[in-house]
Hints:
- The protein has helices spanning 3-23, 40-46, 51-60, 62-71, 91-111, 127-139, 156-173, 178-184, 187-191, 239-251; strands at residues 32-36, 76-83, 115-119, 147-154, 204-207, 226-229.
- The protein is of the alpha/beta class.
- It has a six-stranded parallel sheet, sandwiched between helices.
- Helix 6 (127-139) links the parallel strand 3 (115-119) and strand 4.
- Helix 2 (40-46) packs across helix 3 (51-60), helix 3 packs parallel to helix 5 (91-111) and helix 5 packs parallel to helix 6.
- The longest helix has 21 residues, at 3-23.
- The radius of gyration is 20 Å and the shape is globular.
- The relative contact order is 0.17.
Amino acid sequence: MADWKRGLRRVLYPAYEARMLRRMPTDQLPKHVGVMLDGNRRWARAVGADTAHGHRAGAANIEPLLGWCEEVGIEHVTLWLLSTDNLNRPPAELHPLLQIIEEAVDSLADEKRWRLHPVGALDLLPARTAERLKAAEEATRDVDGILVNIAVGYGGRREIADAVRSLLQEQADKGMTLEELAEVIDVDHIAQHLYTKGQPDPDLVIRTSGEQRLGGFLLWQSTHSEFYFCEAYWPDFRRVDFLRAIRAYAQRERRYGS
């Protein structure tokens, strides 16, 4: 892009963003936003860099995103950083990625602005990564800020399977038989064993990079969510892109299947 165009955007976009913020209907904004941080590797290829550089650029964009969420009063954010499928990537790519995630989570915890909560199959992760995630949660337990779910080693099908397994074990410990459980089990019983138990379901799910599919993200919780697909790769996702997503959500009429 020509330098004069970049300069013009630097002048115009802050005014445009401020106008969007002023016009946001405060009673129609989401309280829980899920974000699929997609496109790091494709961004790296586009700029002629290696994959690790793309993941670092993506990690650097997380703190700005959380700041934008604070601006509009979002209370819960779920960030999908690594799926269960991603764990099958070659070690030469996976190990640096896990290290980048660990460093990013440590940085978020050091800010003491957000309450971090890891969600995912931590038992599938290397012990070091799981320990760092748990330590970040403990370090921010008393922080009065946005609750940020850090989805690492996360898969929607695995979450539901884990929830059912936990429910069965809980009821077995109470002496309930499978036949008795089958008589009373409903969706609320399963919801109480999800990684996000006790939290509201996401109002809005944002996916970057132009892909238009769930890919297993919050399968159970997103039944009534609104979706917004953005063409920008995650490292290029800007405040203006975020505000456009929030504005699009606010303009929709949510029907909840009715």
